Amino acid sequence: MDQVPRTKTDSGDSSARDEQAAIETSGLTKRYGDDVLAVDDLNLTVYEGEIFGFLGPNGAGKSTTIDVLMDYVRPTSGSATVLGFDAQADTRAIHQRVGILPDGYGLYDRLTGRKHLEYAVDLKGADDDPATLLERVGLDPSAADRAVGGYSKGMTQRLALAIALVGDPDLLILDEPSSGLDPNGVRLVREIARDHADRGGTVFFSSHILSQVEAVCDRVAILNRGRLVAVDSIGGLRDALGTGSTVTLAVDAIPDELTLGELAGVTDVAVDGRTIRVNVDDPAAKVAVIDRIREDGAAVLDVSIAESSLEDLFTAYTGDTPSEAAAQEVGE
Ligand SMILES: Nc1ncnc2c1ncn2[C@@H]1O[C@H](COP(=O)(O)OP(=O)(O)OP(=O)(O)O)[C@@H](O)[C@H]1O
């Protein structure tokens, strides 16, 4: 191994550490046979300390990208580094420092949850107390002593999450972590992601559950048909698309002369009874809208502001609408 490993604790200078790439791909391409281009010339940088959302519809290439990062599959061309290590040459070093919750995982039906954890601790040469990990993921100790064949999907997912946390990894890769989880479990995943980042770790969070990514991630990448179509903060994506916000005003009476449409940043005005809906593409216009309607002579009885959802952004970038199932899975 010719590269120096990086760990969460080896840098006293957080600003320098923040500039380092936890994941970097360069021209990464993966074909399956002649027909399937799963990942297409992907150039992506995820910085240490980020919670990074990797978003895309089914079949976009998210799991394939993760498979290449972990050397489960070989790229057709291009390269990738993880924590400064080459994804194909330094696989052992990467596996030692990365905790992964894969999209599909193989657990042994007849082994208990605790045995799975003990095995994972041994494999990583870590010294975690399984009880602490079980508590962190909300798995009851009595459940931990049962064979995983009898686990519900949610319990299995919690165990897989505990396994990913073994050895306090520098990088946590979560592939569809909320799959099978109830709202409490979904919240737990968010808390674990935040907690991991607060301790200086990096989280790479792949999901098609949009609101979850929106709630927890510093930046997101949107992948569509193997290609990167956007990388930015949620706010940055909103600004770039100009999907903006909707200000809804309840007023005592609609002024005879409504001049809201003349304001800078206002893109649309609709009146319904004594409710006025104003679309704005500039955050500063929200307050100006309220001031202007008062100047026009109306008393404002109520105001609500709806920001465009990540779902709108996702649709705008990919042309795909997330599935009903995905929307329901959000569940909160
Ligand atoms: N082993 C394989 N052999 C052939 N094609 C594959 C293989 N694995 C993935 N693919 C194809 O590659 C493309 C990308 O799949 P991938 O699983 O990476 O997408 P994804 O974004 O993770 O989707 P999902 O959200 O459904 O898991 C899809 O068209 C998929 O059918």
TrEMBL record:
Q: Name one Pfam family in it.
A: ABC_tran
The record's GO molecular-function terms, alphabetically, read:
ATP binding
Q: Which domain of life is it from?
A: Archaea
Q: Which UniProt keywords apply?
A: ATP-binding, Nucleotide-binding, Transport
Indicate whether ATP-binding appears among the record's keywords: yes
Q: Where is the composition biased (Basic and acidic residues)?
A: 1-20
Say if the entry is tagged with keyword Zinc: no
What are the ABC transporter domain coordinates in residue numbering? Answer: 23-250
The ranges of region (Disordered) come to 1-21
What the record says about family reads: Belongs to the ABC transporter superfamily.
Its name, as the record gives it, is ABC transporter ATP-binding protein
Q: Which species does the entry assign this protein to?
A: Halosimplex aquaticum
